[in-house]
Every structure is written in C-alpha cells, then in structure tokens.
Amino acid sequence: MMKLGHRVLFGAALIASFGLAGCAGTGPASEQKMVWPPETVDAPGEVEWIASITEAKPGGAGRFFRVVAGQEQTNSKRRFRRPTAVAVHERRMAVVDGGSGVVVWSRTDGGGAKIFELPDGFLPVAVAVSRDGAAWFVADGMTGELRRFDDEGRPVGVIQPRGEVSRYGGIATAVNGDLLLTDVEAGEVLRVSPDGTVNARSGGHGIEEGQFNHPTAVVEDPDGTVWVLDALNFRVQHLDDKLHYLGQFGTHGDGSGHLALPRGLTIDPDGHLYVSDAQFDLIQIFDSDGQFLLTVGGRGNGSGEFWSPAGLACDGRGTVVVADAGNSRVQVLRYGKRRSGS
C-alpha cells in the first residue's frame, strides 16, 4: 500500500512539472488546466483541476450588499480568510469564511459576489443548498439556529428543530426537501422537515455501528441513502433514508484510503465519495462500496495542492468545490473516467 506521504511528494512533483507551483489565480480554466494522474500512474479515473479562487468580486447584478441592513457595501472585492464550508448549485456557490464570520455567495468563478450578512453573535459553521437552487441554508454553531435565504441571498426565515441540535457539524438537503443535520456534540444525525419537525434521528456518542464521534458532514446519495463522515471514529457510515445503519468504510492510518484527520465529505452524481483530510492535505476519492480510487493533492499552495482542506460540495454536473482553508481560497475540480488511450 502506498503511504500518503509518498503521494504528497508525487503530487508536488507533478504540479511543478506543469510549471504551476505557487499559482493561486482565477484565470480561465483553459489557461490553468491540469490533469491527474499522468499516464504512468495506474488509476481508475483522473481529476481535472479547473480553478483556484482567492477572492470574490462584484459584477453585474452581484454587487456586495448587506442583506439584513439593506445597505450596499463599498468593498470592491472580498478576499477569503479561512473558508471552512461550501455549498454549490450549478455555477453558484456559498462559502462559509470562518476567518471573517460571514458567508459569501458568488458564481463559481468568484464573480457576481454578495454576502449573507448575519446577526451579531451568529457563527456560521455549515451551508447547504436545495436541489433546485431556490433556497440556501446556513447553520449557526453557537445558537443552534438554521437560517434560510432565497436564491438572491435575502433572508426568508429561521428553522429551529425545537432545540434538538446541540452543536451543528454539517448540513445537507435531501431530494424530498428535508434537511439532513449532524450534531457533533451529541453524536447524532437528524432528518428535519422545512418547518423544523424532526422526522428521524439516529446515533449517539460511541464507537459501535450506527454511533458517531464528532460527525462533521452528511450527504444524500443519488439513491436516497445517506453518508455521514464520522470524523473521530475515522470512518464514513452509510444509512438508509430513515437513518438506519447500512454499513461503513474507513480506518485510521497513513496509507492510501486511510483517514487521518477527515473534515469534509461530498458525493457526485455517479456516487463517488470525496473525503478531505487535513493531516495530509489531500482529497481522497472512493466508490460507493468504499473502495479507494484516487488521492489528489498534497501540502502546498500551488494549483491542486491543499493546506488543511475542510468542507466539500459537488453540483449536479460533478463539479467539486473544496474549502482550502489554510490557503485562504476555494479550489474547483472534477473527477471522471480516464481518457481513451491514456
């Protein structure tokens, strides 16, 4: 089994060979595109790097504005400080910027930016978007509130699951409109309707099947089942739509497919699962059976390198957005089958 440390060195060498080390721009993908792995590396797929975005900029109708106060901001752009969570729908994304305590909403190229202005004392920790893109949800890590915004970034209400969540970890939306929530303090996963009614819950703090230790992220599979990143148990658990245990994969270690410090989880339309690991600064890709497929990244600030990657999100086209927290940026990539003849 290849050690992740070796993969880190390989990733850095590959990036240097493309002459892109240190690049963190927002130029067109056609000018800054690269593909992993090279032809000499045996892998069932490849990852195409699309862009690195260090700042969100106004453009067109997307001027910065204060949502709550209704006052236009004077900033010409906003540099990310420490993005920790992301949500994406088509060519739009919302980024929780933990370094500034705000949520920035923009196109996935960083343009057309707006800001979700949040109340004093509100600490955003997670963000999600409805399947149709009409509603965006931001969870507060302090008060237990879950705020809803429309597709223009305007606040439209507060969802409170009747004090059922101690401290939010991750949030996601289901096809039927429900919200999937993780409670990192209680070690639980909840399914909540838009009016705040808890329709299902499972878990509890522990190491047994169906129990969790710091569940930080949750996603719904295209088949309607649920995946939960059980971070401090170093595994990903699989639940049915009623949140009953189905299976799991993952173990602690420093080899390919092992989890050392997992932080983010997402899934693409083909059922591939992506897990960010902040210890080795990597994104690992698995199939729906938990079979390890590919490692992407390594410590660095070049294109396709990461430093403490955190939240992940994927849209309906398979475009994956990574909160590259330590590098104060988000990166955009896509995984797919290897090209014919490669």
Overview of the molecule:
This protein has 342 residues and is mainly beta. 4% of the residues lie in helices and 42% in strands. The chain has one helix spanning 4-17; strands at 34-36, 46-53, 55-56, 78-79, 83-89, 92-97, 102-107, 114-116, 124-129, 135-140, 146-150, 155-159, 168-173, 179-183, 188-192, 198-203, 215-220, 226-230, 235-239, 245-249, 262-267, 273-277, 282-286, 292-297, 309-314, 319-324, 329-336. The strands form seven sheets. Strands 1-2-27-26-25 form a five-stranded antiparallel sheet, with no helix packed on it. A four-stranded antiparallel sheet has the order 5-6-7-8, with no helix packed on it. β5 and β6 form a beta hairpin. The chain is globular and about 45 Å long. The protein starts with a helix and ends in a 6-residue tail after the last strand.
Strand order of the largest sheet: 1-2-27-26-25
Query: What is the terminal-to-terminal distance?
Result: 23 Å
pLDDT < 50 runs, ≥5 residues:
1-41, 60-75
The ordered string of helix (H) and strand (E) elements is: HEEEEEEEEEEEEEEEEEEEEEEEEEEE
SS class: mainly beta
The proportion of residues in beta strands is: 35-45%
Largest sheet: 5 strands, antiparallel
Q: Rounded to an integer, what's the Rg over CA atoms?
A: 19 Å
Residues in helix, % = under 10%
